[in-house]
Amino acid sequence: MSPKPSPAAPTASFLPAPRPQGASRYRPPELLRDLRLLDALALTGSSEQAGRWLAISQPTVSRRYRRLAEDFGLGTRLRLARCGSLQSSLSLDQLRLGARWHRFEAGVALLGTDPLHQGLLDGLPGLLPLPHRFRCCRDWQALVQTGVIDGALVSSLELELELETDVGMEVAMEMGQAHGHALNPGPQHPGGAAGATVQAQATGPGLGWPPAADPVVRLPLGPLPLRLASVAGTDAAEGQGGDGCGSEAANTPRLLVPPAPLAPGLRTLLAGQGAMVACTAAAVHNLYAWRRQMVVQNLAAAIPAPLLGHGSGPLADLMPLERTSRTSSLQEQLWLLLPQEWPAIPVLQQAVQTLRQLAVAAAAPA
Questions:
Q1: Are the beta carbons of 214 and 97 closer than 8 angstroms?
Q2: How many CB atoms lie within 10 A of CB 13?
Q3: pTM for the full predicted model
Q4: Which of 89, 196, 194, 191 is nearest to 141 (CA)?
Q5: 32-87, what's its fold?
Q6: Mean of the pLDDT values across residues 288-312?
Q7: Do 50 and 61 form a contact (C-beta atoms < 8 A)?
């Protein structure tokens, strides 16, 4: 028997016009209700947090998971890794991609990022809420590739470092060449530049059946300056966070960074400027807990410049520290990890355009 062909993704000509219902009114189909449970476990990292996100009890989470494990041949014991456990199989991946196109047809999407960059996505039209969590870039890519989410905003500080250290991968970020992976120029976006496409290897014999999950396009958005900031009223804000020895590095307060395995690029950048860093606990993914640690330990943090002085969240009262020769040039490059069909999806097109405009405005001289 000849292998079955891989199902093709919908194209722009077959995609119906989005139904104008808005993110606040979107409801996933009842048919895929249990799929949301598996996705919530991957996104939150614990059965307790998944239950809170879905407004169900933890015993209900465990009971429904056991039923799903039997149906899809998953492990019967629910074990969640540090960044969450993505329970996946060929059939689950296809269901997730179907759920993704249901969102696209409704004119909404799931875009994720870490808590420190979440403010860049807040307010973008058509985006559904997601649990806030720090993740390594490899985990973000897996979530996009399997259809759990529809895109991820990541920093070049982590993306480039992860690609450089990945076994057998040497990636030219603009065009994407690698060993052991099929990377090709991504589709042209309306602005003209292409990203790099990461295609998973086929898992079966013959002509690529079973079909691989969706490829992921790495799309550059532009540089974004980082500013060191601290909570108003703390010693760090008053310039008393260093050791008082007079040098720029000595007078810079310690800088709070995400848990050790999740932001090595940021730690490397700050350490290269002579700064001392303090890592949050592995379980700290909440900005209120982040702010509390900054206050208690008199810490500062590297924050995307457009987020300072805006909004009403837990970091709204951060004050930028005085620029020094070491810290005035801190910046990162913003990247979006997207499915290859993104140019046909209006909500993703608008997000790309808005984020690019934000990066251009942030890089403009004051």
A1: yes
A2: 6
A3: 0.78
A4: 196
A5: Arc Repressor Mutant, subunit A (1.10.10)
A6: 85
A7: yes
